[in-house]
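User: Fold this; tokens only.

Assistant: Input:
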Amino acid sequence: MHPIEHLRYVARSHGADPIEVALGAADALAGIASNPAATLVSARRLVEYHPTNAPLWSVCAHGVTSIDPWRDIDRIAREISLDQTASHLADALADAQSIVMVGWSGHLVDALVRRGDVHALVADSLGDGQDALRYLSRHDVSCELVAPEGMAFAASTADVTILSAMAVGDNTVLCPGGALALACVAYCSERPVWMLASVGTRLAQVLYEAMVNELCDRPDPWASGVDIVPHALVGSVFSHELTKALPESLAAMKPCPPAVELLRRSVV
């Protein structure tokens, strides 16, 4: 496939797993990495088409700021594809009988499939919860959909509430809609709140703020489909290199380059 057609395909890949889209973006950008102008324009368009995909933003940020973009795009793509977050989480769930989650997270459902002995209470978020439920059911994982009126009780009784970061900033985490309600109830009920922060989700603060503002700076922010969860509500953090780390580890994660040039909308 021609690199430009590949880029168009990735840009239009809405509804696919964010990790797969980010890896597709890396492959497409690598094909034009020798042309800095084309890389910048293409990266801007990808960011514009995928406003909540932090791993894709990280790939683009490395591509437009590196003196050797092909090398750095390949490196971040390898790190994303070899992410061990699911493995760390699966090990930590050894004593859990039930968890509550919201929306879709490839790393979380992978960890639940690896365990096979944890009951998942799935809260829906813009239809993504249904996708998680179908995936878990196909892999014979005990699971059930939690209606909005049952979310508080689920969070207050499950062994652990597990949230998945869409993007990580200095003080807060962008999560699927419904995550803040679950985290608050679990926190007030003195139940564990875990956060998954996979490779590529830690953004430079300038990019994180731009992402959050684009989503939430609107007359009806409650319809944005996302939540902003403070680090203080999180008890443990899981990432590629961290297992049940303290919430301070979220801010300490290495961010992607502060590629502010990505925030200018392309005229193409």
